[in-house]
Amino acid sequence: MATQAIVTSGGTGRRRRSSPPPDFSPRRGAWLDTARRRNLTGWGFLIPAALLITLLSFVPMIQAFILSLQTGRGSRLNWADPLWMNFERLLHDEIFKLTMFNTVFYLVIQVPIMLILAMVLANLLNDPKLRYKAVWRTMIFLPCAVSLVSYSLVFRTMFATDGLVNDALMGLGLMHDPLNWLGEPWTARFVIVIGLIWRWTGYNMIFFLAALQNVDHSTLEAARIDGAGSFKTFWYVTVPQLRPMIVLTAIMSINGTLQLFDESWSLTKGGPSYNSMSMSHYLYELAFLKNPNVGYGSAISYVILIMVAVLALIQLKVGDKRD
Amino acid sequence: MTKYAWRRVPGYVFLSVFALFSIFPLYFMLVSATNSTQDVLASRLTPGGHLFDNMTALMKQQDIGAAMTSSALIAIGTTVLALIVCAVAGYGFEIYHSRGKDIVMAILMLAMMIPFAAIMIPLFRMFAQLGMVNSLFAVIIPAISTPLLILLFRQASRSFPYEIIEAARIDGLKELSIFARIYVPTMKSTFAAAAVITFMTSWNNFLWPRVILLDNAVQTMPMLIANLTAGYVTDYGVLMLAVLLTSLPTILVFLILQRAFAQGITGAIK
């Protein structure tokens, strides 16, 4: 989110603070003690955050790996034989393959559309001559203030068989019979993609807007003087300068989409019969509903983890290229 | 209009269409909350007179007060604690910078890559062992230290003038009071941005509360509205009212703090 954005601009370059603090103590050499004490104070400031992250993220990550090598129902667990049994089972699990397909489909279709929309919108809103800027920005950002479950239910209502969307489409003469949007695999997936675009475009737009503040205005002027149209200026001058932000919003979005749960749970309930279910939703069903199988669930969670990590690494590599 | 002005028309059209697309589902939610289910299904798009009927029906079905309280306690608790822990850490990383801290920071940032689904099962077992199933603390604790917020504060601290800290030290202020009495008041917009992000994420969080809060007495608002569709027949007017009630707090927080929010994000990215 907000903060990932920030990694780019700061870079790893180091800073002004390395010079020793001035000596105000009457004793000679006392600054060393002061420096050491301040260094320790700094560590003290970090400890709560570092401990919490270690205990609540890194330790569970290791535990999840151990669990993924175990098998059994409920709390009685044994080592799987062979150890990779859960992972092998995944290869033959048709439902798992279907949920993986759905998740990747959402990712491939929705993320590019959303990021391009967000960039174009940010560029339009960045126009210094645009009026009512705050009103536009608020309208486009407002969907992000709504919870995933809330908007999922609004979309569920709008796309119900006897709902607004069908009424509107039939009223316009575009359709004769109502369509069961949430009852057919492809239309259900389509509704989820529309919902994701609705909820997240404004969010990403805010990051592009912030990044546009750092775009060099003289380069835009130069392009205009050279006779480039607004599209060419946008594509050849603005977009390359936004590259670090594009990489970051892409990582955030990919990460978010691979973890998709709320929409699958509330909007389509994963249906019809698993055809729009996300991997996280399937994991939840396996680990917490019916006959909990935490070992198998943990194996799925590791597949999600590896997918996130690999895609993020690719993104970073691609985004690292400098012209 | 000049030629230059004409060139802008497609842009304005695009902006208007997208703004309408953004606002329409919210408008639909708002009017449907005042309509009966029949009206909602008849696609009525004007406000109706069923707001109080819907309210009564909702209160009969669900304990709205309890859910609002749980959600508020969780969201406020998380925001306050997260702001303290992450601001202190971000400040510590930047103001007391050392190579060792850079390494720790890099390791902590790796946690950003961990999907929540991947650690959910062990977390549940951990809290279950501590007897904290159904406890609001179990919802709050995993959310108070996030790499994202730490980064936000670290990055924003870069623009904080170091001379002020030196001056305060000469005046004899303790390190912690420098943070509390000088840093916090100067970095208001960063705190606002962090508060908006944390409050919204926490209020809207669904998966983890759904896993750890098994008792309906402690359910949160997103859990409550998800339950409303569990039956065979959905009362859409009531559902949309509940959705509206769930959305109002985060929308209000955003509208109140939005100027500071935008400033805080921009300031941190520069």
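Residues 63-269 of chain B form a domain with the MetI-like fold fold (CATH 1.10.3720.10).
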